UniProtKB/TrEMBL annotation:
Residues 98-291 form the AB hydrolase-1 domain. One of its GO terms (molecular function) is hydrolase activity. Keywords: Hydrolase. InterPro entries: AB_hydrolase_1, AB_hydrolase_fold. It holds the Pfam family Abhydrolase_6. The keyword Hydrolase applies. This is Alpha/beta hydrolase. The lineage of its organism: Bacteria, Pseudomonadati, Pseudomonadota, Gammaproteobacteria, Enterobacterales. It comes from Enterobacter dykesii.
Length: 315
C-alpha cells in the first residue's frame, strides 16, 4: 500500500510550481543561476542545494511573536544530543496539557491565536522553537531534531493530553507516534506525509534536471547516514496500519504548499485517523480565526471534562 501512496504523491508533485511567491522574477533568476552552476560545477551545485535543503529561511519577528514570548509563563532551553538547543515556551499552569509542534520556517508564536484560545478555556500549552527557527540559535535543522525535541518534552513532562502539529511538525510528530509516543488527542494539520516527496517538490520548484535531483538525493542520504533507507524511514504512512493512536487530520481546500493527496494517503493508511477539511484558510488554518481553530477547540473540549486518564483517548 505504501508504494501506491508513494506513486500517487510523486505524480502529484512532478509538475508542482508552488504558491505565487515562488514564481517571482527573483526565483526565476535563482533557477537560471542553478542551471548555470550545474553545467559548470555539478558536484558543488549538489552540495549547495543539499545544504539549502536543511537551511530554513528566518521569518522576521513580528509584534505578535514578541507578544506571545512576553506572555509565556516560562521559557527554557532544551539541549539536544547533537549539541544544539531548542527554546521551549509554556503558557498557563493548570489543566490538560497541549504540545504544539510548528512547521518548517515557522515558530511556536505562530500558534498565537490558538494558544490564547486554549489558555482561556483552561488548558496549559507547551510550544518550542526548533534549532534555526524563531528564537533558537543555529542555521540548519532536520526532522531528526524535531523528533528528538518532541520525544524529550514528552519524557520530561510525563506525556501530554493533546498534541497539535502543523506541516513539518506534523510529519515529525507522526514519526514519534510510530516510535511509541501516545496522547489522548492528536491533531495533524497540513502535514507532508511522503518524505521523498519533499525532495520532488523542492526539485520541481527549482526545475532541477534529473541528474541533479539524484545528486541531491545522495546528499540527503549521506546527511542522515542510512542511505536509501531514509526515504521509507521518515515516510509518515509507513507502518501506520499497526498504530492504535486516534487522530484528527485537517487539510485546507486552498493549501498550495501541501496537496490534499498527502492527507488522503495518511488517513487511508491510518485506521484511527479521520480527515476534516477547512476552506480558504491556506496552508496554516491555525494562524487566523475560523474553521481551523474551531475544529481543534471542539476536538480537544472533552479533555476538560473527562479527567486526567492518559489512557482514555479522544476518538
Amino acid at each position: 500500500m505504501s508504494e501506491q501512496f508513494d506513486r500517487l504523491i510523486e505524480q502529484a508533485y512532478q509538475q508542482y510550481r508552488g504558491p505565487a511567491y515562488l514564481r517571482s522574477p527573483m526565483v526565476s533568476c535563482v533557477k537560471a543561476g542553478i542551471r548555470l552552476m550545474d553545467w559548470v560545477v555539478p558536484g558543488a551545485t549538489a552540495d549547495w542545494l543539499g545544504n539549502r535543503f536543511f537551511t530554513p529561511r528566518r521569518v522576521p519577528t513580528r509584534a505578535s511573536d514578541k507578544e506571545m514570548t512576553a506572555l509565556a509563563s516560562r521559557i527554557e532551553s532544551l539541549p539536544l544530543s547533537n549539541g544544539k538547543h531548542a527554546v521551549v515556551y509554556r503558557w498557563g499552569s493548570t489543566g490538560p496539557s497541549v504540545l504544539l509542534a510548528h512547521g518548517w520556517e515557522s515558530r511556536a508564536s505562530h500558534f498565537g491565536r490558538l494558544i490564547k484560545a486554549l489558555v482561556e478555556k483552561g488548558f496549559q500549552v507547551i510550544g518550542f522553537d526548533a534549532p534555526a527557527h524563531g528564537n533558537a540559535a543555529g542555521c540548519q535543522s532536520s526532522i531528526v531534531e524535531f523528533i528528538e525535541i518532541i520525544e524529550q518534552l514528552a519524557q520530561q513532562d510525563g506525556g501530554f493530553d493533546a498534541i497539535v502539529a502543523h506541516s513539518f511538525g506534523g510529519l515529525s510528530v507522526i514519526n514519534a507516534v510510530k516510535a511509541g509516543l501516545r496522547t489522548r488527542a492528536l491533531v495533524i494539520v497540513g502535514a507532508p506525509t511522503h518524505f521523498s516527496g519533499l525532495v520532488t517538490k523542492y526539485a520541481a520548484i527549482l526545475n532541477l534536471p534529473g541528474r541533479q535531483q539524484q545528486r541531491l538525493r545522495r546528499y540527503i542520504e549521506g546527511y542522515f547516514g542510512i542511505g536509501e533507507a531514509v526515504w521509507q524511514r521518515f515516510n509518515a504512512y509507513e507502518g501506520l496500519q499497526q498504530v492504535d493512536q486516534p487522530a484528527l487530520v485537517i487539510h485546507d481546500s486552498s493549501d498550495d504548499i501541501v496537496l490534499r493527496v498527502e492527507a488522503e494517503c495518511l488517513v487511508n493508511a491510518w485506521p484511527g485517523a479521520r480527515l476534516a477539511e477547512t476552506h480558504g484558510q491556506g496552508h496554516n488554518p491555525l494562524r487566523r480565526p475560523g474553521e481551523g481553530i474551531d475544529m481543534v477547540m471542539t476536538y480537544l473540549a472533552p479533555l476538560l471534562t473527562s479527567g486526567n486518564e492518559r489512557d482514555n483517548p479522544v476518538a
